[in-house]
């Protein structure tokens, strides 16, 4: 823990003192857990950040997270001081008795409370959900800020791996564009993973940008939409991963003619080495269908042929039957993904040919929202 009470019941923050001063304080003062009121010991290592820990023989019913990493303690201090310097009212490690929870920070802003959790270690979905719902039920907005994965060090447009738990805190701009903000306590920088385009599983394509803590405001900035020229690079990367998937499926599928993707491709006369440009198209809500777009869209076209309907002519009942038959979870987002795909194909077939190629149409659908609505 980063704070404790001294004998005068004053908050003591050891990171504000030199190690020499802390050594004197440790000899002259006693410290107590702000939660259980039991004595705690001041830890002053040569390399670790000074902090408090419960004495082994004592137990605290609602323990602080003992054994926090140096990176976690360092990040909490940096973020706490950053918010204070911006003029915000913020508390460090406050105990919320009603919830029996202790966020890393609690920010009070215009009669609204925001619980900020700086997450450095792995957290289970169940624990994340429990803590998040606890805040929300008590009208506290949770803000999860994950430590930037160390392998994510470069900027620019690139393939990004986002863990399932981090996917749960992806934000959207006012225009509905997906982005994620992480914080790197090693470099004191916020990392924006902007204009996220879902590919498959944990894989996204995005534009990575960084901002030093001294230039960051709160609430966070909203990233700008990528240009059509930047999307061209997105498109090249996306098609590359689609092609890799097709080749892998072709040479490694164990289901043979029972493989729905390969069977549908054969029945439709699609050459796996040269798939039509209108399959393997990213669409909004596409992450709700846990298959590569080139796979589910090929199977969908075969399904439509059997019904003698175009994709945009499918009603909700037909869409739900399709999802159910292929064991895809029936969600509003999954249904909408198929509707979005049909909508794009319908626009592509319009006589006025407003979108001369599928690349431009996908850009307009995903990023140039104001041009199509």
TrEMBL record:
It comes from the Bacteria. It comes from Lysinibacillus zambalensis. This is Competence protein CoiA family protein. Residues 16-60 form the Competence protein CoiA-like N-terminal domain. InterPro entries: CoiA-like_N, CoiA_nuc, Competence-induced_CoiA. Residues 68-218 form the Competence protein CoiA nuclease-like domain.
